[in-house]
Design brief:
The complex is a heterodimer of chains A (369) and B (200). Chain A is mainly alpha-helical. Chain A has one domain: Up-down Bundle (Formate dehydrogenase/DMSO reductase fold). Chain A is built from 13 helices and no strands. The chains are: A mainly alpha (369), B alpha+beta (200). At the A-B interface, helix 5 of A face helix 2 and helix 3 of B.
Chain lengths: 369, 200
């Protein structure tokens, strides 16, 4: 057997394992949810209101939006290498949004009362707008996917609503008066993180096949670090107590291992791996995994820093409970499971690609016109 | 009508009687405090001092909790009280993150009591009224106020540091106290929530 044949066989074995492993993780997540429903929220960490579930929700919703952006960028000719991957990208986006919805279900204390979102919505709440934009975007993603005639305008509109999700989720924190959250930069950070996660996920899926995505990651990863430094500088320059306390928490306090872990493993290492001239496809995948994990940790850091310094109280620590970790793995597993399953049934199969090519002709003519 | 409270910090002795009275009146379980007293220290010996700061829902004029609640479970009532409808609350805890005063509590269980022997008869009787997975907070003891009585904390305070009444009634004690103490403060005024709990 030649080396390439052997590598192909290994890849095939690994590919076959993804679905059952992701399915198992999804089942673990569902079991954790059932445990919560039976035992109540006592099984969750007893400290801050928003923890790892909300961080994972932001991560997955951001990933969904990032994948819609890349699909639209491929369709509009900004990332030509992705033009043929439209269907896979849309499946990935839908899978991410559904998994994000699962994370919210896990987080709610009274999920059975969620019907109040429909019968008694409060339009001054960012949550309601987030819910509406998520709903509209998922519907648009499905329409774009199943519509026989491709429309780059419809995909463009989907990208706009997907952008709305990311910005609104940034505003959920940014409009809050908590020191670490009260910043207009957060929606921008969320947008950059969404693109980073989407690019990283695609690199994990395809190795070094997409050169422009590597460049995107190389450009955006340091930007996230710069944003973090800007926030710290602006918050501490005038010695504002809440901001200073938040910074201390991140740099030398209880969040320091996670903050520095993010800097080294979530930004510096993937950045160096992607820049390394002698890198292999495996290294690119490792860089992608590290970047995704880094964004998750950055979101947890941001969430905890905004809640760990309550008004007139002692600093609170946070570490997710076993059930929360199970739920997190379940959400991530569910996204991968739905994506692989969706791709198996509806993905860029030769037939679909062929049909996409025939569909591309009228779209091209439309574009030229 | 706008119910409000005035707290005299010079009278408060930090005994936490108000916290206990609140738990007794409202039957809140372990880990759930609708009000508490924060004790802080300042200065150095021989000029050291202890300060007591009673904290409870500020029943704000412009409550950020009501603004962010996605299902209108938190509302500002006509009488100025901020209330939570447990039948609507989905337990998202957005209100807890939005409250600048950290005075909301999440009900994680209603079948765990304070004692190893299991629930007492009192605990059995009262914990069932607290819906698991929802958020709670001070109600100004609406059930007592409806009967013309003061909230439990006000009635219990041994130092008479707490005063409750209608901020729209010029004859009420709270209005008189605020007139006599023009330097009365609210917590975190920069949050823009316009609290109706004043500290003198």
């Amino acid at each position: 057997m030649t080396n390439s044949a052997s590598n192909e066989a290994k890849r095939s074995t690994a590919g076959n394992l993804i679905l059952p492993v992701a399915g198992l993780l999804a089942v673990i997540g569902i079991v954790c949810w059932v445990l919560q429903l039976i035992l109540g929220p006592t099984v969750l960490a007893d400290s801050i209101p928003w923890g790892v579930y909300i961080a994972a929700f932001f991560l997955l919703a951001g990933a969904g939006s990032g994948l819609v952006f890349t699909a639209a960028a491929g369709e509009w000719g900004l990332l030509p290498a992705l033009k043929d991957k439209r269907r896979s990208l849309l499946i990935g986006a839908a899978a991410s949004y559904i998994a994000a919805g699962f994370m919210i279900l896990l987080d709610l204390g009274q999920p059975v009362q969620i019907y109040n979102f429909f019968v008694s919505p409060n339009f001054t709440s960012m949550f309601v707008w987030d819910f509406l934009f998520l709903l509209v975007t998922v519907v648009l993603v499905l329409v774009c996917f199943f519509r026989k005639e491709k429309s780059k305008w419809l995909l463009g509109l989907t990208a706009v609503t997907a952008l709305g999700i990311v910005l609104i989720e940034g505003w959920i924190l940014a409009v809050n008066s908590a020191g670490a959250w009260n910043s207009a930069l957060i929606p921008v950070v969320f947008l950059v993180e969404a693109i980073v996660v989407a690019a990283a996920v695609l690199l994990v899926a395809k190795g070094d096949a997409f050169e422009p995505l590597k460049k995107i990651l190389i450009g955006l990863l340091p930007l996230l670090l710069i944003f973090s430094l800007i926030e710290m500088f602006a918050g501490n320059y005038m010695g504002a107590s809440e901001e200073a306390a938040g910074t201390k928490l991140l740099l030398t306090g209880s969040l320091a291992p996670f903050y520095w872990g993010w800097v080294v493993l979530g930004v510096a290492l993937p950045f160096a791996l992607l820049l390394w001239k002698g890198k292999s496809a495996a290294m690119v995948k490792v860089a992608g995994v590290l970047a995704v994990c880094g964004v998750l940790v950055a979101k947890i850091n941001l969430l905890v820093a905004g809640q760990a310094l309550p008004f007139e109280g002692e600093q609170i620590g946070y570490f997710p409970s076993i059930v929360e970790i199970g739920g997190l793995l379940g959400g991530l597993g569910l996204a991968v499971f739905l994506f692989v399953l969706g791709k198996k049934f509806f993905g860029d199969t030769p037939a679909a690609a062929g049909s996409a090519q025939t569909e591309a002709a009228p779209a091209k003519a439309e574009a030229e016109a | 009508m706008r119910y409000g409270m005035v707290i005299s910090l010079s009278r408060c002795i930090g005994c936490n009687s108000c916290s206990i009275a609140c738990k007794h009146e409202n039957g809140t379980g372990p880990g759930v405090f609708w009000r508490r007293v924060v004790i802080t220290e300042s200065g150095k010996y021989p000029q050291a001092a202890m300060h007591a700061l009673p904290l409870l829902c500020n029943h704000c004029e412009d409550p950020s909790c009501a603004k962010v609640c996605p299902v209108k479970a938190t509302q500002l009532d006509d009488n100025g009280m901020v209330t939570i409808d447990a039948k609507k609350c989905i337990g998202c805890r957005y209100c807890m993150t939005a409250c600048p005063y950290n005075v909301r509590a999440y009900v994680k269980s209603n079948d765990k009591g304070y004692f190893d022997e299991g629930l007492t008869e009192y605990e059995k009787a009262v914990y069932g009224e607290h819906k698991v997975g929802t958020v709670e907070k001070c109600t100004f003891c609406a059930q007592r106020v409806e009967e013309g009585r003061d909230p439990a904390c006000v009635a219990t305070c041994p130092a008479k540091a707490l005063f409750f009444g209608d901020l729209d009634d010029p004859a009420s004690q709270v209005v008189k106290l605020l007139k006599d103490n023009p330097n009365a403060k609210t917590l975190k005024p920069e949050a823009g929530t316009k609290p109706k709990v004043f500290y003198i």
